[in-house]
Specification:
The chain is built from 15 helices and three strands. With 273 residues, the protein is mostly helical.
């Protein structure tokens, strides 16, 4: 399989310790200690399957999770100075959620470079959300140990730049898709649906375009590096345009003027004579 070949080829790059690997080119960081990168990309299933003592990425994941929390917390604290603790906590949860980390890992095509047992790979391990999220956190931990906190911070903020820009534009306590659904359910029991319009770009850097449709009406359209991001963008545009209000106004019956009965003008003329 292509992914198996990629994993073996990547392992050979690590052992050589000379050339910059394709993954290092994507993340914009060259490891001085290539073993740290290898550890970050080694799934626990590899040791379980071979029944040999083997390092894996669980300890680096533990470290990377703490660094990720610190970097995101510090960023939110500095850039949302008037937001209370509760709102900051909600924002941080969005930025470090498993789904968000999976999207970052998929954008880097991280699953392709993981070294894992055959059984894990056969069961779809390279695309599993938990596996990708763990590997992304382990990569953060590896960059921190190989470089320093500043290098890790630069990597985290670079990967999260789209999400950070998005939350800067949105009210911090609003879930756009949920809010749109609440607005529409005051009019109709039907919920909006999100239709995929297109997807383009290479596997590691896809761009999705999605539109929000409600009762046959396109309310908004958005794009993003994942379907979830595109759906959120479509919901935001829908709430900005509020096209459902125009439809409701068009359906309102127009006030009808009273028709003057036939002969009314003649009768009035006779009375005035």
């Amino acid at each position: 399989m292509r992914t198996v070949f990629a994993g073996k080829k990547f392992a050979a790059w690590i052992k050589s310790g000379s050339a910059v690997s394709p993954l290092e080119q994507r993340i914009g960081y060259k490891f001085r200690n290539s073993l740290l990168l290898a550890e970050a990309l080694t799934h626990p299933s590899l040791g379980h399957e071979t029944q040999q003592r083997h390092f894996d990425n669980q300890r680096l994941e533990f470290l990377g999770d703490a660094i990720l929390q610190l970097v995101v917390t510090e960023y939110l604290f500095r850039h949302f100075g008037e937001a209370p603790e509760g709102q900051l906590t909600k924002l941080r949860s969005r930025l470090v959620s498993r789904e968000t980390l999976k999207a970052h890992a998929a954008a880097l095509d991280l699953g392709r470079y993981l070294m894992m047992g055959r059984g894990e790979e056969a069961s779809g391990g390279r695309a599993r959300a938990s596996t990708l999220a763990d590997a992304f956190e382990a990569l953060i931990g590896a960059i921190y140990l190989d470089g320093d906190l500043e290098k890790a911070r630069k990597f985290v903020l670079a990967q999260a730049r789209e999400e950070l820009a998005q939350i800067a534009e949105e009210p911090v306590d609003i879930n756009p898709k949920g809010h749109l659904q609440e607005l529409l359910q005051t009019i109709s029991p039907r919920s909006p649906v999100y239709e995929l319009v297109s997807q383009s770009g290479p596997e590691h850097n896809k761009m999705f375009v999605v539109r929000a449709v409600w009762e046959g009406m396109v309310l908004g359209q958005g794009s993003g590096r994942s379907k979830k991001q595109a759906e959120t963008a479509a919901a935001i545009e829908a709430m900005e345009q509020k096209l459902w209000t125009k439809r409701d106004r068009a359906r309102e019956p127009k006030p009808s003027g009273k028709k003057r009965p036939k002969g009314a003008t003649r009768s009035r003329l006779r009375r005035n004579l």
